[in-house]
Design a protein that fits this description.
The complex is a heterodimer of chains A (1114) and B (229).
Chain A: E1 30-33, H1 35-38, H2 49-54, H3 56-62, E2 66-69, H4 97-109, E3 113-118, H5 128-135, E4 148-149, E5 170-173, E6 178-181, H6 196-212, E7 216-219, H7 237-253, E8 258-261, H8 267-270, E9 282-284, H9 288-298, H10 302-310, E10 319-323, E11 330-331, H11 337-347, E12 354-355, E13 358-359, H12 363-366, H13 371-383, E14 387-391, H14 449-454, H15 459-472, H16 475-478, E15 480-483, E16 491-498, E17 501-508, E18 514-518, E19 527-530, E20 535-536, E21 545-549, E22 554-560, E23 580-582, E24 584-587, H17 600-620, E25 635-645, E26 648-657, E27 664-674, H18 678-685, E28 688-694, E29 697-703, H19 708-719, E30 723-725, E31 729-735, H20 739-743, E32 752-753, E33 761-766, E34 770-775, E35 777-778, H21 784-795, E36 804-812, E37 817-825, H22 833-849, H23 863-883, E38 895-896, H24 899-922, H25 929-940, H26 942-950, E39 960-961, E40 973-976, E41 979-982, H27 993-997, H28 1003-1024, H29 1028-1057, H30 1071-1091, H31 1097-1113
Parallel strand pairs in A: 1-2, 1-14, 2-3, 3-7, 7-8, 8-9, 9-10, 10-14, 23-28
Antiparallel strand pairs in A: 4-6, 5-6, 11-13, 12-13, 15-16, 16-17, 17-22, 18-21, 19-20, 19-22, 25-26, 26-27, 27-29, 27-35, 28-29, 30-31, 31-36, 32-33, 33-34, 34-37, 36-37, 38-39, 40-41
Chain B: H1 2-52, H2 55-62, H3 64-70, H4 77-101, H5 104-147, H6 153-175, H7 181-205, H8 207-217
Helix pairs in contact in B: 1-4, 2-5, 4-5, 5-6
Classes of the chains: A alpha+beta (1114), B mainly alpha (229).
Chain lengths: 1114, 229
């Protein structure tokens, strides 16, 4: 079976938010949206709610789950709506309350939460409350709605926020004949929260919107609610009292709503806005944002780590809101004056970009449209503790316009398409509330949603992927944060941990590639899985974990405990971890009958230690150890020979592992290297079994397959057809007639390398000419692979297999033969068919992950791949024809398929079906919820399924039975120069040697390959789709690929194989082919249920499809 | 008639004696047969026991097996010891048998052979252990000299080994009382010869060095330290 990544986690809704979770905001990804700027549905030049509603699908597809709507209330719009003149209505430009309600309903239907602005620090001076107040008598309740004074000399300790436009927080009102207090613009008088009626009025406003279904409020300018003389009038205790009352009012009557505090303060002051979990649910982390920019500018992690270390803990129910950019300037209030100068120099050398104490630019221009930097910034935003907020347009890299006044340069229309007005509006361009960006880089002709949605490599597509990946783990939203401190300061590395989930984030803040060594010792043994590509990295070991990152590169790794290490990874244990074996007498130490009489006791003790500790600990960590996870008590040396060859000696040992009556026999050649021979020590260290010492001489004992001299000696012995007596039998080295041609005369000088990917066997290459395959688990009897290899090489000379050059066999005194090693021709290849096909389909799905579902694929989208599959079909047929050719060898002579054979196939399939379905019943709970319905359906179809397996197959007796591959799937073929070489003729490992050697219908191989296609289809789908929305979108693409591949393979096979009359019926889903395919799916089901239930969905799907075929045929 | 009587008596006497001898002869044959069987058991037991304690490893590493095989013998030292045990038991049985038959001269002869057996056994053990010791010392010397980076360490190791072997052979020969004085004298002569040869070699080779050393220790002409003004 194939080793792949676990399937994506399931989320409760397509948006990733749990349906009824009071802490939903901790997993929120918020999209900040300006109604005015989003989409104009009525062509008046201004965006509206109907436009927003029409684009909610886009927002959902982006991958966010919450919308923050900027002010949409009636307003003179002197401050972009933050100057409200009526709290419980919609500005007519944006639509009506009904439009808003429709938008809310649609958003909720799509699984999106909606939060709105609650601007209660001030109103517009046009608000009826202010108009009434200015006319009311001093001291009256109406007048007291605002803060009045006869002098502008009160609260002199209070800073002015908009220093560019205001020179006082007081403004004279000629009607009221008094000064009124305003922290922002003079047209925004502050409400007076010392007046209880103001709070009551605010509560009524809140209830109005909450009753309508709004999910939360952003509390604008919340630190400034209350004023007290002698203070700076920020963060006052009385202000917190007001917030607590607002919160209490929400909690008393509403479920799962929340408050987000906009408090542009230092973290320790912002902390107060969480209270004891009884004030705001969320608050902005303002100082983090400029420090992210600072870190990138300085290429140093310090600004980020420093501010995060200053960030206090917050109550468990609370969350930070973090952002890169928003509708205001990039505020630099939370940095020192020197840092501010640095930021200005770096990011706003054009003084027009500066406003107040900040920079009025969008993310892309700040990053000079450097895609790598933009992605790095976003990766930091999405992985830092808190709920990220994305500003509309930043997902496509929109630009800004510094020539527009105030902060309106970052509030331009959303760029939907290259059409007129960026697709934002059909109005005449001069009617637009602001002109769209039109410069050559960021202009809507170059940067727009329509273009990017079709481009898999666009920023928008990348954002979608990132947001989909972020949804996979709650550690991003809810996890703790722990910085690592690698020596390279240009690298920012931190861990996000939540429950059992650990995410490692590593970012290169510099403009050049950087290496980093991370101390991940506490996670030793875990396998990092890169979350974007789901690529497994080598497991974490004792040594610092080395990574290299490209310029502005980053990684998100999930440190998994269940993922398998990459197939190519060779687990190299530190030699320090290995035990020391004292060899007082060289190899003889291990054999009591080879040491001096007075050392017999020591030898016995050493042997016991070697067999019960040294060898078991080594074998347990080897890929080829079949019973993974089962500890070995003793690995007994059952037979051995000390093989001397020139100056080298090895012990060629056969081990009995496990307890009687059925211990498993393993082949374990051993080599020694002493410290003086550094090269050999180095080579053996990669497969070290133990450190060794003989008096003052130290060295390494290792697997002899890591010793080039041993591999050469084996080949040499094969060439000379040597025999070597062992204690209980003999070793027979043999070569085939093809040896000389394959090995050449200089085989002794071929460099020995140990390629990756070996699993149950050990594979060593000699140059690019020979491949020495050492079997580990030994079985007595004729080896199918040896028989097939000899037959295909020497008898029929089948071109598309690896020719056999030699073999090493062990013949015991009991007469039983076991194959220890085979020497084959090396096949230069592009990897196995499984990896090739899987990667192909993954690429195909990746390319279409973000493209619109409506985009139709070209008819010949897979043309090149299908040509390859056609070749595979032909090669498979040629193999079967070769195996069916006339021969005097009774083991290979084709025979007619007798009714008894078909009956036996049927019986075997039926037994397999009963066994698998029985297991399915008992293991139903282990199957992931998403696949449980399939399991139930299969169980419901049990009777017709078994009936089908039991049904007679009269037409099949026309076929023939021959020797077949027996374990034929994509993993058993090597891709080489647009062709295939078929390898590994061992047969199905779960079957006995006799079963593997039995003649069969060749359709069994064909069925195996068809099932392999199905595995590729579902494996690729699982590894690419991050959530069920993507899954649903990509599944038809994957299935279409699988259907085409099946058809082409079967057609090519039939065309090439039919003349040989190997089978009667050749209809997919019917006859023997259908039977074998169903049997194989049942076998896979049994395997998956026993080994990895999360994969049971694949064979279950195959079984259902087979049953479906039956129904369709009926 | 008398002559016939004499012949008859003689014949009778002969038959009497034969009749008297036959049981003893039968007994002797039985004793030899039993002795032969016991000898085989002893041989088997000795070989098994010696092999069980890895005596063969000792003799192999001591070089005695190789020596024996070089001498054309089929077995190894362990086989030889087994054979020795076998013959000792068999000779003992023959002694008993011949003694029973009254062949005292043969018995005495066999007794001498029998008494020689243990000496051979001990001598054999001396050779085996001595050879192993000689090899061990030789290898140690060689390793030490090699470690100390002395030239010709292998030659020095071999000298040490063969020197010890010479003594071991002397001890073994004295144990089996072969050669006696003449071997000892010969050995001493050879040893004296070797020492003399070495003394001459070193003496001649190092005479200049020795003269220089003597001159340094006891100079023939005192140096005049006074220098002209």
């Amino acid at each position: 079976m194939k080793d792949l990544q676990p399937p994506p986690q399931e989320s409760a809704t397509p948006s990733g938010l749990a349906v009824d979770d009071p802490l939903w905001y901790k997993d929120a990804v918020i999209y900040q949206l300006n109604v005015k700027a989003f989409l104009d549905s009525n062509d008046d030049g201004i965006g509206d709610f109907a436009g927003v509603t029409s684009k909610l699908g886009y927002i959902r597809d982006l991958g966010v789950n919450t919308i923050w709507l900027m002010p949409f209330y009636p307003s003179p719009l002197k401050d972009d709506g933050y100057d409200i003149s009526e709290y419980t209505n919609i500005h007519p430009q944006f639509g009506t309350l009904d439009d808003f309600r429709d938008m809310l309903i649609e958003a909720h239907r799509l699984g999106l939460k909606v939060i709105t602005e609650l601007i209660i620090n001030h109103t517009s001076d046009q608000h009826p409350w202010f108009q009434a107040a200015r006319k009311a008598a001093p001291g009256s309740p109406e007048r007291d709605f605002y803060v009045w004074s006869d002098t502008d000399q009160k609260y002199l300790d209070t800073r002015i926020i908009f220093v560019d436009t205001e020179n006082s927080n007081w403004t004279w009102d000629p009607v009221a004949k008094a000064y009124y207090w305003h922290r922002f613009f003079s047209h925004q008088p502050d409400l007076n929260f010392d007046n209880p009626q103001v709070l009551e009025a605010v509560l009524r406003i809140m209830r109005f919107w909450l009753d309508m279904g709004v999910d939360g409020f952003r509390l604008d300018a919340i630190p400034y609610l209350v004023e007290r003389e002698g203070t700076n009038n920020e963060n006052l205790r009385e202000t917190h009292d007001v917030i607590r009352k607002l919160r209490a009012a929400i909690d008393a009557n509403y479920k799962n709503r929340f408050l987000l505090a906009e408090a542009n303060q230092w973290p320790e002051d912002v902390r107060e806005y969480f209270g004891d979990g009884d004030e705001c649910h969320m608050a902005y982390h303002f100082p983090l944002m400029p420090r992210i920019y600072m870190s990138i500018a300085q290429e140093d992690r310090y600004p980020i780590t420093e501010i995060m270390q200053q960030t206090p803990d917050i109550p468990d129910s609370c969350q930070w809101a973090i952002f890169l950019r928003n509708h205001d300037e990039l505020t630099l209030e939370m940095v020192t004056s020197k840092e501010r100068d640095y930021m200005y120099t770096t990011y706003a050398s054009d003084v027009r970009a500066r406003i107040n104490l900040g920079i009025r630019r969008r993310l892309s221009p700040l990053m000079e449209n450097d895609q790598d930097r933009i992605k790095l910034m976003n990766s930091l935003l999405l992985s830092m503790p808190g709920s990220p907020i994305l500003y509309y347009g930043d997902e496509i890299g929109m630009g800004d316009n510094v020539f527009i006044g105030d902060r309106n340069g970052v509030r331009t229309p959303m760029q939907w398409s290259p059409d007129r007005n960026a697709g934002f509006s059909r109005a005449d361009p001069q009617r637009l509330y602001l002109p769209p960006i039109m410069d050559p880089i960021y202009g809507y002709q170059a940067t727009n949603v329509e273009a990017q949605i079709r481009d898999p490599g666009s920023l928008l597509s990348w954002m979608k992927r990132m947001l989909a990946v972020r949804k996979v783990s709650q550690a991003f939203g809810r996890g703790t944060r722990r910085f690592l401190k690698p020596g390279n300061r240009k690298i920012l590395a931190y861990l996000r941990e939540y429950a059992e989930d650990t995410i490692l984030c590593v970012a290169n803040l510099s403009r050049s590639a950087q290496p980093v060594e991370l101390n991940l010792a506490p996670f030793k043994g875990r396998v990092p899985v890169e979350m974007l590509g789901r690529t497994t990295f080598p497991p974490i070991g004792e040594m610092p974990y080395l990574l290299t990152l490209c310029a502005y590169g980053f990684y998100w790794f999930r440190l998994t405990t269940d993922a398998e290490a990459p197939a190519w990874h060779e687990q190299v244990f530190s030699i320090d971890e290995r035990p020391v074996v004292v060899l007082f007498d060289g190899w003889s130490t291990l054999f009591r009958d080879r040491v001096m009489p007075w050392r017999i006791g020591m030898a016995e003790k050493t042997r016991l230690q070697f067999e019960t500790d040294t060898l078991p600990r080594f074998i347990e960590t080897q890929r080829w150890y079949a019973a993974k996870g089962v500890p070995i008590e003793r690995a007994r040396i059952s037979d051995q020979v000390i093989w001397e060859q020139g100056k080298w000696t090895w012990v060629v040992a056969l081990l009995e592992v496990g307890a009687a009556p059925e211990p498993v026999m393993y082949f374990m050649p051993l080599a020694l290297a002493w410290e003086a021979d550094e090269d050999r020590v180095h080579n053996l260290t990669t497969a070290a079994i133990a450190k060794i010492r003989q008096q003052a001489n130290v060295g390494v004992m290792g697997d002899a397959f890591a010793d080039a001299a041993f591999c050469h000696a084996v080949v040499e012995a094969m060439a000379k057809r040597r025999e070597l007596a062992t204690a209980q039998g003999k070793l027979k080295f043999r070569s085939t007639a093809a040896f000389e041609q394959l090995a050449g005369a200089d085989y002794a000088r071929l460099p020995v390398a140990r390629p990756q990917g070996s699993s149950s066997n050990t594979v060593v290459t000699l140059g690019e000419r020979l491949l020495l395959k050492g079997y580990r688990r030994l079985r007595a009897g004729a080896s199918p692979e040896l028989e097939m290899g000899l037959y295909l090489t020497e008898v029929v000379r089948f071109a598309n297999c690896a020719p056999l050059a030699g073999v090493l066999e062990y013949v015991g005194n009991d007469g039983q033969t076991r194959v220890l090693a085979m020497l084959q021709a090396y096949v230069a290849n592009q990897g196995d068919g499984w990896t090739y096909a899987l990667e192909y389909l993954r690429r195909h799905l990746e390319e279409h992950r973000t493209t619109p579902a409506s985009d139709e694929l070209p008819v010949d989208a897979h043309k090149a791949f299908l040509i390859l599959i056609r070749t595979l079909g032909q090669r498979t047929a040629q193999l079967h024809r070769a195996l069916a050719s006339a021969t005097s060898n009774a083991d290979f002579a084709a025979e007619p398929l007798a009714p008894a054979d078909i009956e036996a196939y049927r019986a075997r399939a039926l037994a397999q079906g009963r066994s698998a379905l029985g297991l399915l019943k008992t293991n139903l709970e282990q199957i992931p919820a998403a696949d449980r319905s399939k399991a139930s359906e299969v169980l419901a179809q049990q009777e017709p399924l078994l009936a089908r397996l039991a049904a007679p197959l009269a037409q099949e007796s026309q076929g023939r039975k021959i020797r077949i591959h027996g374990d034929y799937h994509l993993g058993q073929i090597l891709v080489t120069r647009n062709d295939f070489v078929i390898v590994d003729f061992e047969g199905e490992p779960g079957h006995s040697l006799e079963e593997r050697r039995a003649k069969q219908s060749p359709l069994r191989d064909v069925a195996g390959m068809l099932r392999s296609f199905s595995y590729v289809e579902h494996s690729a789908l699982r590894s690419v789709a991050h959530d069920e929305v993507e899954f649903a979108k990509l599944a038809p693409l994957a299935h279409a690929w699988a259907v085409q591949v099946r058809e082409v393979f079967l057609a090519a096979y039939d065309e090439a194989a039919r003349p040989a009359a190997l089978y009667g019926t050749f209809v997919p889903g019917q006859g023997l082919l259908g039977l074998f395919e169903l049997e194989k799916a049942l076998y896979e089901l049994h395997y998956e249920l026993s080994n990895r239930p999360t994969w049971a969905g694949i064979p279950l799907q195959g079984i259902l499809e087979s049953v479906g075929d039956v129904h369709a045929n009926h | 008639m008398q002559t016939i009587d004499i012949l008859v008596d003689t014949t009778r006497e002969f038959f009497h004696q034969v009749a008297a001898l036959l049981p003893r002869l039968a007994l002797a044959v039985a004793v030899v047969l039993v002795g032969w069987l016991v000898a085989k058991v002893v041989r088997f037991t000795i070989e098994k026991a010696l092999r069980a304690v890895n005596f063969g490893v000792l003799t192999q590493r001591a070089g005695t097996d190789h020596f024996l095989q070089s001498a054309g013998l089929q077995g190894d030292t362990t086989t030889l010891f087994g054979l020795l045990g076998y013959w000792m038991v068999l000779v003992a049985a023959l002694m008993v048998a011949f003694n029973g038959l009254g062949l005292t001269y043969v018995t005495d002869l066999l007794q001498r052979v029998e008494l020689f057996g243990p000496k051979v056994l001990v001598a054999g053990l001396v050779v085996v252990l001595g050879s192993y010791f000689a090899r061990f010392v030789g290898e140690s010397v060689e390793r030490f000299c090699s470690g100390a980076q002395l030239p010709d360490s292998d030659i020095l190791g071999k000298i040490a080994r063969y020197l010890i072997m010479a003594f071991v052979v002397m001890i073994a020969l004295s144990q089996v009382e072969i050669g006696g004085d003449i071997v000892q004298r010969t050995f001493l002569i050879i040893l004296a010869g070797v020492v003399l040869a070495l003394a001459l070699a070193f003496g001649l080779g190092g005479k200049d060095w020795a003269a220089a050393m003597l001159e340094r220790w006891w100079p023939r002409h005192k140096q005049n330290d006074q220098r002209p003004l």
